[in-house]
Amino acid sequence: MRRRPFSVVLFDEIEKAHPDIFNSLLQILEEGRLTDGQGRVVDFKNTVIIMTTNLGARDIAGGPVGFQVENDSAVSYDRMRAKVSEELKKHFKPEFLNRVDDTIVFPQLSPAELLQIVDLFGKRLSERLLDRDMTIELTLAAKERLIQVGHDPALGARPLRRAIQQQVEDALSEKILHGELHAGDHVHVDFIDGEFVFTTSKQEGWVEPEAITAGDNA
Fold first, then answer.
1. Core-most of 53, 79, 138, 195, by most CB within 10 Å?
2. Which BP terms does GO give this entry (predicted)?
3. In whole angstroms, how far apart are CA 197 and each of 191, 193, 203?
């Protein structure tokens, strides 16, 4: 912090932090500075501190209908915020909560947002496959199945990343190791009759390197 006073500091899942962390945060949030064990002072006045927590997430996910499907989204958000606030008060001391400027409650991910996340992971996978001159495409059925097995309302999209790795990436790795996939292949991933199905075709306009070399020599 001495070298980079203009920073964003993230404490992920702050509820799991050691009590000593909260003692330090009390001084930072109140005075904008921190004094270490050697008496040195670190300035935090130009620092943005963000803390995340999963407190209340499971109660919201398993709560009564209305947190997600109420017609009045503002009312639904207020109910979620009240529930989270209740859980925060149970877990954190008042002197800590009073020093937090604002609390933002993120609603559960919608189906459209989950599809966007799958597309994002799919894009990253596609970029890695380009190093092998391969491309990949996931059907809507495959994406929806990945969401079904990989989304936990209480945990968000993190399990979704593991589902994509286990269901798609691991299978691709096996096929590459066994010589079932080659440069120039376009991999089509679908979900049919309860299982993921991988089919391949040659990329449009793909020319085998041997053919290019032979043509150049001619």
1. 138
2. cellular response to heat
3. 6, 9, 18
